Amino acid sequence: MKNSPRVHFNLRKSEMINEVPNYPAAPATATPAAPALAQAGALARIPRPRPVSITRPRPPIVAASPDPTRPKPPAAVKPAPAARNAVRNAARRRSG
Q1: How far is CA 63 from the centre of its chain?
Q2: What is the pTM of this model?
Q3: Phi/psi at 3 (5° precision)
Q4: How far, in Å, are 82, 83, 91 from residue 96 at the CA level?
Q5: Most confident of the ranges 13-17, 36-40, 42-46, 55-59
Q6: What are phi and psi for residue 87, nearest 5 degrees?
Q7: By the 8 A CB rule, do 87 and 79 touch?
Q8: Residue 14 scores a pLDDT above 70
Q9: What CA–CA distance (Å, rounded) separates 91 from 96?
Q10: Dist. CA 96–CA 90, nearest whole Å
């Protein structure tokens, strides 16, 4: 009610409405139940879907065990730690 002292409606009795106009009756409208019943009937005629059968998951495919009589393939060869540091230091010297 902060602004209530500042509000002025300026209502005069001569400008006020004294009676309600006599309007004609509203025309009868179609009942909304008819479309709802038609839709319910259409939905009732739709066959229900068959339930989906859920199959068990397949077991994971396991790689064949390695043959113990065959040798392993060679592993990737990594340079020795000292050689790696020498390569890094040489690259640093050249770039500077």
Answers
A1: 38
A2: 0.21
A3: -100, 5
A4: 22, 21, 9
A5: 42-46
A6: -65, -40
A7: yes
A8: yes
A9: 9
A10: 10
C-alpha atoms less than 13 angstroms from C-alpha of 5 in its C-beta half-sphere: 1
pLDDT at 72: 79
Token output for 3: 């602004």
What type of residue is 5?
A: P
DSSP line for 25-45: PPPPPPPTHHHHHHHHHHHHH
The CA distance from 80 to 48, in Å, is 71
| Amino acid of residue 43 | L
- Residue 69 carries which DSSP code? T
> What tokens does 74 get?
């060679």
Whole-number CA gyration radius for the chain: 45
Residue 49 tokens read as: 């879907």
Q: What are 66's two structure tokens?
A: 């390695």
Tokens of 14: 């001569």
